[in-house]
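Reopening this one. Same input as before:
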Amino acid sequence: MKVNSPNSKPLTPQEIEHLNNLKKVVEQSLEDGKFSIYEIERIKSMMWADGKITYERLSTFRKTVKEVMGNIEPEIEWRSNS
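Same output, byte for byte:
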């Protein structure tokens, strides 16, 4: 399903490059089927790089997880409290 937004602007080359880098980081993070806390922090910092999160970044993240994992939810490796 394609969603059209009447106020959307074409992506700049820098934004496209940022989305491609985000996709690569998510793919590399999921090589073992789970996100470590450090991988999550890195992805979050990329998604909030300019202080705001965009539909394109969220969409890239979700699509990449779906491509890599299919219908399986990735595990999240939490820090231990000890």
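So the earlier flakiness isn't reproducible anymore. For the record, The longest strand covers residues 34-36.
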